[in-house]
């Protein structure tokens, strides 16, 4: 099975920007991502506009995205009201976050970890009845900005508990970019054993320059899905210094060079990253737009 990449720039990327990007630009970002071959796109977040004003236009964005066969749009959902909005907006997937520590969970979602599990269980049942793909993300799976190290046994126990609601996918998120390949391998393998009926997905930040090697380690350990953000933009607004998702174009370059098929158009990804920098008014963190792909591959110079 070839790995799939979930494009998260429209949601996790833009939510951490200090300014608000226009609805039209968000729709154009999604269109460009689809044109580059991305088939799973996290389009927005159905949370309180007061909490994340950058994504207050979720319904407007979903009403105008290209609805093509094979393209699946996901929405981040925290509560029942959010799921109501997501269903009305015709998302294909929901992503529900359960944070591994109470300290970050209360800042990020206004509830404890235990309450987060209860919320996920309820949302998963409703989403399943509605025919949606269901992802549960364990946030701060590799460390918390407030509580420090998070024991691996705690993450695996959380995986066991959230797996009871029969998710299609369990994602491990390195919310503050502190993970290393050894721990990535152990947690990915552990989750796969605990929840054999769910795909293992990983979400890495490159905050401390380990995001790409962690992504490769995750695939080697059996992960099926990786999150990435065009341009490498994004982060968590509720965690200090949680900057920098791994960039879609940089990740795809590495995988292509390794002979791992992604089915994505690298040239279009690079162009989208450069365009996104123009929209944001600053250079994006991704390096492919500056360095270019290696000469002779896919016609790129």
UniProtKB/TrEMBL annotation:
GO molecular function, one term: hydroxymethylglutaryl-CoA lyase activity
Matches recorded under Gene3D superfamilies: Aldolase class I
PROSITE patterns in UniProt: PYR_CT
UniProt xrefs under InterPro entries: Aldolase_TIM, HMGL, PYR_CT
Gene Ontology annotations of biological process type: ketone body biosynthetic process; L-leucine catabolic process
Pfam families xref list: HMGL-like
Keywords noted in UniProt: Lyase, Metal-binding
Sequence ranges assigned to domain Pyruvate carboxyltransferase in this UniProt record: 3-270
Database matches in NCBIfam families: PRK05692.1 (NF004283)
Family to which the UniProt record says this protein belongs: Belongs to the HMG-CoA lyase family.
Identification of the protein by name: Hydroxymethylglutaryl-CoA lyase
Annotated source species: Nocardia pseudobrasiliensis
Lineage start: Bacteria, Bacillati, Actinomycetota, Actinomycetes, Mycobacteriales
């Amino acid at each position: 099975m070839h790995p799939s990449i979930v494009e998260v720039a429209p949601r996790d990327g833009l939510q951490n920007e200090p300014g608000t990007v226009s609805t039209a630009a968000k729709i154009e970002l999604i269109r460009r991502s689809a044109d580059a071959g991305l088939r799973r796109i996290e389009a927005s977040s159905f949370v309180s506009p007061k909490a994340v004003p950058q994504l207050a236009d979720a319904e407007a964005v979903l009403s105008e995205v290209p609805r093509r066969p094979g393209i699946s749009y996901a929405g981040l959902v925290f509560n029942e009201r959010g799921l109501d909005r997501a269903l009305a907006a015709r998302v294909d997937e929901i992503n529900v976050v359960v944070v591994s520590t109470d300290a970050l969970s209360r800042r990020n979602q206004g509830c404890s970890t235990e309450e987060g599990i209860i919320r996920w269980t309820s949302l998963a049942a409703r989403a399943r009845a509605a025919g949606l793909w269901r992802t549960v993300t364990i946030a701060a799976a590799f460390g918390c900005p407030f509580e420090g190290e998070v024991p691996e046994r705690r993450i695996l126990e959380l995986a066991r508990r959230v797996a009871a609601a029969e998710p299609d996918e369990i994602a491990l998120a390195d919310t503050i970019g502190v993970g290393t390949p050894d721990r990535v391998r152990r947690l990915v393998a552990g989750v796969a054993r605990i929840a054999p009926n769910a795909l293992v997905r990983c979400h890495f930040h490159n905050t401390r320059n380990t995001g790409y090697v962690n992504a490769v380690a995750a695939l080697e350990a059996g992960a099926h899905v990786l999150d990435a953000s065009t341009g490498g933009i994004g982060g968590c607004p509720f965690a200090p210094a949680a900057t920098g998702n791994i960039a879609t174009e940089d990740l795809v370059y590495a995988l292509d060079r390794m002979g791992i098929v992604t089915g994505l158009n690298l040239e279009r990804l690079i162009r989208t990253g450069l365009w996104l920098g123009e929209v944001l008014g600053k250079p994006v963190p991704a390096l492919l737009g500056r360095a270019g792909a290696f000469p002779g591959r896919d016609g790129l110079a």
